[in-house]
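User: Please predict structures.

Assistant: First:
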Amino acid sequence: MKLHAGTEAGEQHKFLYKYRINALFYQKNPAWIRKVEGCIFSVLTLSLERIIIKELGQRICISIQVMKIYAKEISKMSKIILTGDRPTGRLHVGHYVGSLKERVKLQNSGEYDEIYIMIADAQALTDNAEHPEKVRQNIMNVALDYLACGIDPEKCHIFIQSMVPELTELTFYYMNLVTVSRVQRNPTVKAEIKQRNFEASIPVGFFCYPISQAADITAFRATTVPVGEDQMPMIEQCKEIVHKFNSVYGETLTDPEIVLPSNKSCLRLPGIDGKAKMSKSLGNCIYLSDEEDVVKKKVMSMFTDPNHLRVEDPGQVEGNPVFIYLDAFCKDEYFEEFWPEYKNLDELKAHYQRGGLGDVKVKKFLNKVLQAELAPIRARRKEWEQKLPEVFAILKEGSKAAEAKAAETLQDVKAAMRINYFDDADFLN
């Protein structure tokens, strides 16, 4: 089938849709489809009347109208990831096992069409407005940690939140769909307010950041959001906003799904002080960039079973941070390498529980495990530290791609809300 300038729009759409299906699911013509998709950005952002694609001897003329329809069809069929972190400090091992490791796995799975990873500086400013330099300085720290952990800029768009102004506008519109009482009931918001001792002095921006997060997710039509367990209430709030918007204005936004770490021990890694959550603000972290001697010092100072006073005493593994860390990081092969007396973690736990095993020995083993896990991450980070202009370029290109995607969604949102006045031919009717 060949298309010409005079071909009906409906026929053009059928042709494009057919080849999209073939390319994605039957791999019949992936080269052709890449050419088509490569034109979408140009069509949506430039004043073009038509696109001509030549492939396999075919000369295909595609109108703007059809290409826009086609772009929406692609979006509906795509699997898209959106996730990110606040740049309030370097990332720690809790971030790694709680989300980063999962992101790298998903990135390399080949199952996702688009991946957006956000450095959430605007969210960081909600409780750091008086310390903007702290946020500014940590932009590169977070980017370096991403790259060190294996986030691939060839497969992912790493971007800075404030460089995508469409997110702010979407947040403003979504605020009208959420009640104050609903935000007040959000468990994560309540916990964060308590942790920061905001009490009655809660910044409005911080209070509303679940809505901002919904804007971040929906702007990229994310189908998948890999995050830690503490973000579950946020995703639920996002889903509520999506359902509310779609019920009021028509089907426009994509309903996301959360992806938690498969290892349950990784859902919420405690701090080295035994506190429920490892947190930069609490200063109880082991950072991904910590040098070997620093990691060792932190491990050897870790909180453990307070009732395990003597080596011969039975010890408790449940709720014991040392064993929670081993659950999260340890592999059977580490025993063969570092502690051949045991075959696996179950044997080690059994010995500790019946008594006769000291905390120092267990901590020394944990240190070796963490060093084995963190050594390649530290090495890659140091390599990237020597290429900061390249990292800067990655962030700039990623932010450009992210803004283009968010602009497309915002256009659809405004059309659904009927506030796209100058693009609406029926406005004067």
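Second:
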Amino acid sequence: MKLKKFLALALSVTTVLSMSVLTGCSSKEDSSAKETKAETTAETGADGEETTGAKADMADIKVGFIFLHDENSTYDKNFIDAANAAKEALGLSDEQVIFKTNIPESSECYEAAADLADRGCNLVFADSFGHEQYIAQAAAEFPEVQFCHATGTTAHTAGLDNFHNAFASIYEGRYLAGVAAGMKLNEMIANGEFTEEEAKMGYVGAYTYAEVISGYTSFYLGAKSVCPTVTMDVQFTGSWYDETAEKEAANTLISRGCKLISQHADSMGAPTACETASVPNVSYNGSTVAACPNTFIISSKIDWEPYFEYIVNCVANGEAIEADWCAGFEEGSVALSEINEKAAAEGTAEALEEVKAKLISGEVHVFDTSTFTVDGKNIDSYMADVDTDADYTPDTEVVSDGYFHESEMRSAPYFDLRIDGITTLNEMF
């Protein structure tokens, strides 16, 4: 597997924990996360490299998963499905995996992680950005347990051998979904439904973070690559999962003349609003065709099964888990749903395969700086906050060879440029 390597900086445990508390900016409790906590059993897996010296027979592996919500959230369902798929692939029993669902981004996450360690888990995984500081706290307290966290930013500078971050180059998947969106706009223009100048998309985002900015920008650039006149409005909800707010945001965008809607939020609020209004929709983390048969086009997602198999195999083989892991299409970590031919433009499947091949080969770069401007100007240099601190201080040059090198300096996105053609209607931190 082609994995990106990152050097860990020697910082003290005290420093990383204090930094994590200060920088966990999505450690807000979603209202929907206050549901009763549920525990079930399931599974996981992975493959690795450098030896740690401590091997564990696969039969002795015990994995704990911490999820922000449950299967009602498209985001968490994606993780749960991947964990179950990894379980089957690795031959783990139901007794070897513990699921903790509806764990908010609060001290309850630390308590859940500590409980999993006390119950004999030698590997613990948490799925939400705001869980990070609590997972780092648990990692410092239980050095014999491996703690892995999705979407986080601090593991590569934490100095903790048992604390790890992971993400995938989902911006490539969103770019392809954007190509599908742009083709749909072109079809609607050709059918006389609106003019080229009226080609405007809407995007429902959770928070005004780099992860979301990177996502909506890559989606927009994919659409723009085939529909050059497209613009986009973005409405933030201030929650990862709030069906009412997401539906209201989608309706606001539709009322502003948006002809197609996409999202980086976890409920069915936006897709169902689109189905009701007969507005084409590009989803995230899984197909919504069952609920939206007339409007759903395609969805991109991170497939977490390769990572789960990787980390489990690392523990079983006594091999070190990378501090900061990232993979893409080539490794099977970024995926697209089946295209809904009823809603998609003709020729979408063929076009996406062509662009996907160019992304894998490096012929096309999502954040090619010749394809966008900031305040009317192309950029040839940008210092990003890669080694996250409390003030989000820019520390790393990330533009070279004509493109912004997203998720190469660390796995979690750090693209936070506000490019021309995209209007944010509000801000939510």
